[in-house]
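Honest question from a wet-lab person: if I give you the sequences of every part of a complex, can you actually get the arrangement of the whole thing, not just the pieces? Trying it with mine:
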Amino acid sequence: MGRDQRIVVEIESLYRARYRQFLRVATAIVGDEAAGHDAVQEGFALALKERRSFRGEGPLEGWVWRLVFNAALGVRRARIARREALDSVEEIASRNGHVDEVGVRAWVAALPERQRLAVYLRYYADLDYRAIASALDVEVGTVSATLSAAHRALRRSLEEVER
Amino acid sequence: MIDVEPLIVSELDALLPLPDGGRADWQDVVRRAGLDRRGVVLRVRGRWPLGRRRSLALVLLAVAAIVFLVAPALGIAPPVLDFFSSRHAPKRVVHQFDLLNVGAPRGMSPRVIAGEARLVTTYHRHNGVAFPLWVAPTRKGGFCFVFGFGGGCADPKMPAHNEPGDFNGGAIGLGRYGSTVLAGYVYDKNIADVEVRFRHAPTVIVPLLWVSPPIDAGFFFYDVTRGQQRRGGPVAVVALDEHGEVLARVVWIFRPKPAWFDPRKVADLSKRHVILRSGQASITIAPSRTGGNCFWLRYRYEMMGTGCAPPRYQAAPMAGGLNHGTNFTVFSAQVKPAVERVELRFQDGTQIVLHPVEGFVLYTLPKSNWPRGHRLTTAVAYSATGKQLNKQTFDPKHFGTYPCSKPVPIGAGETACP
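Yes, you can. This is the full assembly:
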């Protein structure tokens, strides 16, 4: 079995082992599970199609996460463009400044996109900083700073409520 | 300052619990990628009308793709990795395989062909850490592997070993690496799937990567998530045939160790006391709450062994052996009450008699017993009436058991005392 086929096997292995985590993150981004599933399928299909472009410079999983993100963000953008009614955390994000629900979930939704993705990967996908860095295509230090900024923002929101 | 992390975790969990995997559909992914179930590239199929010769060439290409490239990955047949086309292991890995040969007790070398070690695949933990799996064939017809921070050897000719509670457990060579990684291999070609079952989480199907002869085995890997750990963790690894029939099941590896296993949990440390000293070796005991005594075997400050097995678990009248370090060799044994004395016999014909103290014997071998021709060969346990109750033999030619001034090369760049 050559490198190409080995990558196919590894992608399948990743899908079978981690489908639920991918679905969870994609659902958080897109807004509902059916669309999240669609994004995961599209992301993995793209990974199969573009497997030769994976150069092995980082973990395969990080590369697949990027493809699934992009698929999920693409679905979300298309939905927003169609002005579909979103009944998810993303809906709250789209109404930034008009938050009508107080709570961590609303504040997470209101975070900038990279911080939100980092939070999802950390807490929905159980990834460590190195894996998150690979998935977001940034340095590990950037992940640390991004999550710290997210924590700071959430802490500030919480303190304002408690005041 | 408020620690927001627990709040984030609980709120996000409440907002979107980990979904079940019921929607997972790999074949749908394959279809979306432009590859149908038969492994034909749809884009290629669309070009057939361009010309007969070209069509034929494309059909042949598609068939080749089925056979060599895509089909195995699509589940048409088990994916089989051609071992000899895999990448050779670098020198440092070859050395690790060499060590498996030289580190084994006499007569138990796996006879691994270290120079043939190759990279079978690289697994990834979900935190991104890579686990390369290196495999090399043995001259006995099995294989050895180096994986993560572990390794081992498999011999298909060895009779399968079943632990209590397992069903045909010997069919699954299962190892745990760290607290979360489960990895192993199977030989039986009837095994189509390997599942990891959890106490309170959905079952996960783990893909098998089959490797061609001379390895001729299927490998699997699974990294248990924190969520699955929180829900009680794994309870079984199960091998199934293509109809879903269970062919093998391993459960013992997931069973918590009994309380008596850990002296810290069951020993009454207030009653701990030294019962035997020999040279700089000592045995300390303390009563165990599960019956019998816990013991600690030390040489100076170095712990060489400990245990708390209740007396009913000691099957033989005498259970012991040789412990060694850079400058000592110690004989110790736990004996049943019926044992009145233990006789140690040496190559040069000398003998030593040890009398048990609270069920233990201990003897630090003096320097005069280190050279070949003077070493321990036998330990014999006798009752008060002189009846032989048990006998243990020791191989005096075994490397590394006795200290020496000039260690000799044993291969792989390693040395040991002859």
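Two things worth pointing out. Chain B has three domains: 24-77, 83-254, 259-416. Helices of chain B lie at 5-15, 26-32, 42-45, 52-70, 91-103, 226-230, 263-266.
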